[in-house]
Amino acid sequence: MDFEKYLSDKKSIIDKALDRFLPTEESPPVILHKAIRYSTFSGGKRLRPILTLATAELLGKEIEIVLNFACGIELIHTFSLIHDDLPCIDNDDFRRGKPTSHKVFGEAIALLAGDALMVLGFESILKSTENRMVKKQAILKALKEVAYYIGTENMLGGQVEDITVEDERIDGEDLRRIYRKKTAALICVALRGGAILSGADQKQLKALTSYGENIGLAFQITDDIIDILRDQREMKKPTYPYKYGIKESKIEVEKLIKEAKVSLEIFGKKAEFLSNFADYIVSREK
Amino acid sequence: MDFEKYLSDKKSIIDKALDRFLPTEESPPVILHKAIRYSTFSGGKRLRPILTLATAELLGKEIEIVLNFACGIELIHTFSLIHDDLPCIDNDDFRRGKPTSHKVFGEAIALLAGDALMVLGFESILKSTENRMVKKQAILKALKEVAYYIGTENMLGGQVEDITVEDERIDGEDLRRIYRKKTAALICVALRGGAILSGADQKQLKALTSYGENIGLAFQITDDIIDILRDQREMKKPTYPYKYGIKESKIEVEKLIKEAKVSLEIFGKKAEFLSNFADYIVSREK
Fold first, then answer.
1. In chain B, what are the helix, strand and coil shares in percent, each to the nearest 5?
2. Which of A14, A127, A166, B82 would be A68's cystine partner, CB 3.0–4.6 Å?
3. Chain B nearest CA to A113, separation (Å)
4. pLDDT over threshold 70, residue B286
5. Positive or negative CA dihedral for B102, B107, B108, B110?
6. Using only C-alpha atoms, what is the Rg of chain A?
7. Domains recognised in chain B with CATH numbers
8. In angstroms, what separates the C-alpha of B56 from chain A's closest C-alpha?
9. Which residues of A touch B129 (CB under 8 A)?
10. Which of B275, B277, B261, B153 is nearest to B219 (CA)?
């Protein structure tokens, strides 16, 4: 398979679907819709929704079945980035080389654009009802999964732990738990939602979840390694490479990617894309 | 009917259901769950979820059918209050006589607690699937209504307009539009969601929506009158009584309440509670 072509084809499908779904910049309140579109179309690689589409194809389904869900995950991801960048949390002025939402639109609009993107995320998933091939029961289950994986026990809880953890006392187990919540959870639900809407069985769901947790952790550790190597950020909080060194962190990433691939074995050759994807997300440049 | 008893009985049912639904303060992350419970149990009168329960009873259904939805609306309302109070928006230090979330927990936790309350709101509504009397189709429709009424065309859009409107140019039409979005929309969907889950027909839905819009507007104008009379706040932005005077504002409120009651006529005597409720919310003390 042509991995790069698969990625760019799917990215293009997602970009178009997001553009169709989101309110135009001309519709009032103009500034809110501008802010929503600014962050949604600011160079994201669409990794999470691509995982959703790939899951449908892995399970022999057409991507149309999960496209609204995939867009919903990307919108929720965008919400979380805007709020994370706000002065009261990470206080980041730039993301992907562009000024963050609050630098362009001010804090109040950035806050409300983030809120609105979460609502739009749920709304996009709810549009799945328009496709008669998708079962209502599956949509409700997928929505519950999203609420669980972005909620207080997972993504949002992980963000809270990330900013409240006591630096001195933190150990590897804490770091892995925080990474699993704040980063791996959304990746897991991108896969699980795609699987549920595609009619996956329990064994397949479990395998994809294990894959998602492993690549999610590896993804976050890689992010931290890149940050340390480029020295782009002040070291505001402890990270895996800061605590264990770059060499050991790279060994951990390799181990996680290997485990991720083992989880895919039940799918055989059909999981080729997901297998390549595991290598891809830890080899990326930022 | 004993109006006050109806209110307090329903409030008690909602308080208990919220307590059962929300994660305990002991479950990690403790500070996030403390913040979520602090704002949820800080003296709210539960007006919106009471409207949901009353709608079910108006339509001859048991309140159990809509209780999860009602709690979801209250959690979403709580999210919107926490974010509204933040320094970048209204910068309020007190709400209902208690320090606001960011004064107690700091801005970062208040922000994330607000985010989590929106997720919990959707999650509570999704719990409606556990009641076999509720149709899946109706739950999905109710969820779509929530996304629409709190989204960029309604509640969140109204908040944006509220902070970006040019004070000099604003006219009565602008103010009514902003009030309809930022205040009436959530009241409307509290009624509409209750109605949809109770199997209302189009005529009933339309009547309840008109009732909700009218009491929502009246509620917001009354709020502004109270603020001016008590002189509690600096006049940060134009309001109805500020622009038209207290006398004309009170006449407008009376007109809106009258229209709200006209909308209820199709329900006959069964709408007694909602009719009394219209008088109640404009007579309240803050």
1. 75, 0, 25
2. A127
3. 8
4. no
5. positive
6. 18
7. 3-283 (1.10.600.10)
8. 22
9. 140, 144
10. B277
Lowest-confidence segment of A217-226, B49-58, B226-235 by average pLDDT: B226-235
Q: What is the pTM of this model?
A: 0.96
Q: State how far the alpha carbon of B13 is from the alpha carbons of B6, B8, B192, B194, in Å.
A: 11, 9, 20, 16
Cα–Cα distance between A131 and B266 in angstroms, integer?
36
In three-state secondary structure terms, A24 is coil
CA–chain centroid gap for A209, Å, is 14
Q: Does the complex come out with an ipTM higher than 0.90?
A: yes
Please count the residue pairs, one from chain A and one from chain B, whose beta carbons lie less than 8 angstroms apart: 139
Question: What's the pLDDT tens digit per position in B149-184?
Answer: 999 999 999 999 999 987 778 888 899 999 999 999
Instruction: For residue B161, give the nearest of A29, A115, A139 by CB distance.
Output: A29
Residues contacting residue A96 through CB under 8 Å, at least 6 positions apart: A42, A43, A44
Do residue B29 and residue A151 have CB atoms under 8 angstroms apart? no
Contact B122, A144 (CB under 8 A): no
Least confident of A235-239, B10-14, B174-178: A235-239
CB B29 within 8 A of CB A160: yes
HSE value, Cβ hemisphere, 13 Å, CA-based, for B50: 22
Question: What amino acid is encoded at A140 in this protein?
Answer: L
Cα–Cα distance for residue pair A192/A88, rounded to 1 Å: 32
